Each structure stands twice: as C-alpha cells, then as structure tokens.
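QA checklist item 7 of 12: single-chain prediction sanity check.
[x] sequence parsed
[x] length recorded as 440
[x] structure emitted
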Amino acid sequence: MKIAVVGTGYVGLVTGACLSDVGLEVICVDVDVKKIENLKKGILPIYEPGLKDIVERNFRKERLQFTTDLPTAIKGADVAFIAVGTPPGEDGSADLKYVLAVATEIGSSMNDYGVIVTKSTVPVGTAKKVDKAISDAQAARGVKIPYDVASNPEFLKEGAAIDDFMRPDRIVVGVNSERGREIMSNLYKPFTLNGHPVIFMDIPSAEMTKYAANAMLATKISFMNDIANLCEIMGADVNMVRKGIGSDPRIGNKFIYPGIGYGGSCFPKDVKALIKTAAESKYNMRILEAVEAVNESQKSVLFNKVKEHFNNNLKGKTLSVWGLSFKPKTDDMREAPSVVIINKLLAEGVKIKAYDPVAMEEAKHQLGDTITYCKDEYESLVDSHGILLVTEWTEFRVPNWKVVSKLLEEKVVFDGRNIYDREELEAYGYAYYGIGISKS
C-alpha cells in the first residue's frame, strides 16, 4: 500500500513514521520547505521519545519520504491522511481552512481511487465539507474519480505516542462504504495483533468519539482539582481521597491526580470546540463549561499559594521553576500552566530561574528573555527563595535535599503535582505547599 500523510506536525509525523515502520510506503507532505529539508536530515520539529529513531531508520530504507509536492504524493495513494492543524478561533471553534485547502488540492490532483482520511481533530460534519471540497475540485477539472472519505481520529498521548500507535487499545474508523472499510482494515492489520480490533462506525460518530474522549478526560481532571480545593478548605488530604475513590473499578485511578490544570494541544482546544459545536446547535454543554472554568482558575492555584506564603510581597524575590512543558516527556508548551504561573509571578516583580529537560527552546519562543534558563535544576536554586514544581519529570522526583538546602535562600517548596512527601520535607525544615492538602 502507498500512503500519503499531509501535515508533519505531531499527529502527521507520528502517523507516517509508524506506518512506514511496519513496511508500508509512506510519503509525508508539508508546505513548510525548511521543515521538510530538516526532516530529510533527521531534524525533527517535535520531541517525542523514540520518534527520531523510527524516522531516521525508515528514511534510510526509503520507506518514508518527505516532500512539499502534494500532487505527486497523492497520485497512486491508496490512503491519504489529512493531518494538518485545526487551530482554535477566537470563539473557540476549530478553524478548518487548512483541512479544506488540503481536500481541495487532493481533489485537484488525484488520478485514481483512494480513501481520504481526516486524522486531524475536527468537529462533527467536517467529513461532509471535505467530501464537497474534493467533489468541487474534481468538477472544476471535468472529472469524476471515485473516492471515499473516512474519519480516523488519533488517540495519541504525548510522551507515549509511539507505543499508543504501535499497540493501540482501540482504532476508531468512520467510513460509509465496504470498499473503504476493507482498505482501512488492511491498513491497520499489523496494529491489531494485540487483540484490539478496529471499531468501525458511521463518520459523524467517529468525529464525535474523539471530542467525547478528550472531554471526558478533561472532566475527570477538573473534577479532581475541584475536590482538591475543597479538601484544603475542609482539612482533608486529596491524596487519600484519590486512593479511596480510585480503588472503585467504576471510577479507576487514571486522570484523578490533582494538579495545576491541564494544558497541551488537545484538551483545551477540544473542550472549547465541543462547547462551540453544541452552541451552534443551540445546546449548552453545561458540564464542559464548568470543566473549562475550573481548569482556568486552577492554573492560578500555585501562584496564589506563593503570594500567601510571602504575605503578598513578592517584589525582589527569586523563585526556581522546575518543569515548563505541560506534561513530562514532551516539549509542548501549548496552554501550559507554567506560562500562566510565570507571567503572574513576573507581573509581581519576581525573578524566575527555570529548568526543563527538553522544553527550554520552546520556552524561549513563548517567554523570551523574561526569565533565566538554567543548565539543570540545581543551578536554578542559587539565590532562590523557593521551588515551584510545575511539571513532574522523573528527574525531579528524588532530589538531593541536603544539596538543595545549601543552595536555597529560603526553604519552601510549592508542589504543583503532589510528588513530594510533606512529612519528609518538613523534617528537613521546609515549608511545604501541595494541591488539596491542608496546612499542617
């Protein structure tokens, strides 16, 4: 099978690389000339564990190619994935101009039957618009080449995307013809050896499934953060509460860890888009509106604890921020709580010294020279009046507290992910602030 993947961002590059790794012929397409040239040199636009090795290996074996020429890539392709960005508009709706532009170009270029698959996260009804764009482009050429449109949403976790793609727990495909279904079945056969089948459904249901999944996970996070905030007020420990409810198999123990809000490229955008999609149909997603509101306020929780500790007088203080990406194992800083926290601290006259294992370059794009970037977590502690643990990278889990104590000006830890033991830190003489944990 020949596969074309249009878009070499997070979803497109992972999709193309993993498909080529099972022996398929894959051509990845992007309009960004520099990005394509870098990919040919093994320079990736994103950080994802294991991805660089797969890209380099399959590029050497010529199973994976990169080009800016979509018409050439699409000719003879059995499947063409549309994996371009769908950035949120000011009103929260997903902007489909890139998706539809690709669909139009496919319709203008295709010379044989193929399945055109939306891989980007798109609102319900997008497949119809893609179908129309392809059909209109063919009509402008005076041709009528058969094709099928399908929806195949991705369920990749940043930091674990390769494993998610190669060993999926489910593959959702929306397609309306037997021919299209057969091709998608053959495409994914190498990935279903773990016993999890492809789940076929109608296209609108597949489009909705992606949004519903992310909205549910976002809801669990905001619910737990709301409970955490109440725990502090009532004198309860959210860590104990989490263990208590997580042992119930109806609830489970995933996505119930309290923290400082969700971020990244999916949850914030998809929750907003689903709210907007419902509003266009004159329906209010009341739960999701609350989920979004809780998440926005949660990003300020750690900042509020810092202000309280220093009696609202932060001017002239220096603080160490450990972790900048929205989650571990990625350099993604889109909607990252760190940006909100740092900007609030800067506005109060705080000097920030920060370290992140992989997101430093991305942070420079977002924060510029407003903060000091350090070579490791310990360098950030020199002359610092406290630590803010923002992203729970594994290398932050067991620091040498004796060394930390010698470097800090003031022994205080603001733990935004509840990875430290309060009693242990208090034994070292630290003031400790967690999420959902009342003061001792």
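[x] summary fact logged: The two ends are 63 Å apart (CA to CA).
[ ] second reviewer sign-off
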